[in-house]
Each structure stands twice: as C-alpha cells, then as structure tokens.
Amino acid sequence: MCLVSIAVDQSIHTVSPVFDAVETSPFYICSVRVVPVAWSRKAEVYFNLGGGSTSDLKALLGRLNALPAVLSTTHTAPPV
Q1: pLDDT value, residue 37
Q2: What is the 3-state secondary structure (H, E, C) of the chain?
Q3: Is pLDDT of 60 > 80?
Q4: In whole angstroms, what is the distance from residue 78 CA to residue 80 CA?
C-alpha cells in the first residue's frame, strides 16, 4: 500500500486524466480524496493505493508527471 498525492492545475484539464492513469495501472484504489485549493483552479488529489510493485509505481508516477496539468507528485511507501 502506498500514498500518492498529486497537485493538478484544473485550468489546463480536470482531474479526470489523473484518475484514468491510476485506473489503468496495476494498482487498486483503497481511498481517494480531492481537495480544491481556495481561490484557484488547482486541486490536490490524494490516493491510498494497494497492489502493484515498485516498478509499477515508478511507471505510474512517470505517466502522471507527463500529464500537462500535473504540477507535482509525491509518494510514500510504508516500511516493509
């Protein structure tokens, strides 16, 4: 299980491509939270993901960072 947070500029596109990237990955969504940033078109999307491997996570982060509206991604994997 890992936690991934993604900052999205919704003036470029909505959070829909972010969800598409996660749904087509080997991970499954345990929980999701979308937090709009006040007075802007930005949003923070927080995923709690299960399944997948380290290489799957790197591939997912690469796909997310390639999206034009994604400003940043951070992730934390629990200790093994």
Answers
A1: 87
A2: CEEEEEEEECCCCCCHHHHHHHHCCCCEEEEEEEEECCCCCEEEEEEEEECCCHHHHHHHHHHHHHCCCEEEEEEECCCC
A3: yes
A4: 6
Angstrom distance (rounded) from CA 71 to CA 52: 24
**Which token pair is 34?**
């979308």
Per-residue confidence (pLDDT) for residue 79, from 0 to 100: 64
Query: Which one, of 79, 1, 10, 12, lies nearest residue 44 by Cα?
Result: 10
d(CA 24, CA 47): 14
Angle of the 16-23 helix axis to the 54-66 helix axis, nearest 10? 160
Instruction: Using the CB atoms, write b or e for 20-56: b if 16+ within 10 Å.
Output: ebbeebebeeeeeeeeeeeeeebbbbebebeebeeee
